[in-house]
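quick one: magnesium ion bound model?
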Amino acid sequence: MLEVKNLNKEYPMPGHRLKVLSGIDFTLNDGESASIVGPSGSGKSTFLYILGTLEPPSSGSIRLEGKNPYEMNEKDLAAFRNRKIGFVFQDHHLLPQCSVLENVLIPTLVSPPDDSFQKRARDLLEKVGLTERIHHRPHELSGGEKQRVALARALILKPQLVLCDEPTGNLDHDSAKTVVSLLFDLHRSQENMFVVVTHNLEIAERFGRKFKLSSARLQPV
Ligand SMILES: Nc1ncnc2c1ncn2[C@@H]1O[C@H](COP(=O)(O)OP(=O)(O)O)[C@@H](O)[C@H]1O
Ligand SMILES: [Mg+2]
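yep, here:
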């Protein structure tokens, strides 16, 4: 379960403070998903980074499985983020020198070696339709294929929370459609929480609860 209470975020600017998020309350139960739409600059990425333990809020609290990540020391926080949260960004962020399979395994590298990771990576790559490409390097893949690798990588450690920031933002219509279907199927089969920021109305419609971020407020739509 993810619980956000009275979350506020401001950035200091010359002469004033930019209020990006104001009084946000948000709860997601295990297995639920939410989509967030909103104009550019409305704070969607900021909100996801805060949920993702990457950017502390100015005030307010976040609890994932009852734990507030911003009360942890750096080492515990890094381990918590690695284990509990999967990220899919607009840009795939794959390592160019690593194969598809190696990229999917990157989040596992801080854990003791375990053959089950290999199997799960191959299973996930099969689910996203890339079994034939596991030894290829990212530059040999299309944009949509790279994003499908990023999906598999986000899920390799079975994170409780998967955060997607405009995952189809750089894709053409057909590739976006494939990625949307996969996101949706993976969400149903993995039973974790998904929060997806998107301009793609098809995603916004398909993910359980729908929100809009504007004027620093998060509102159901
Ligand atoms: N690190 C930062 N320092 C100052 N301002 C920031 C920072 N990150 C984001 N902002 C500002 O916060 C607002 C929200 O940005 P962002 O969360 O990226 O919006 P969105 O993802 O909805 O387009 C924007 O006005 C942006 O310029
Ligand atoms: Mg953004």
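The pocket of magnesium ion (ligand 2) is lined by residues 44-45, 165 (CB under 6 Å).
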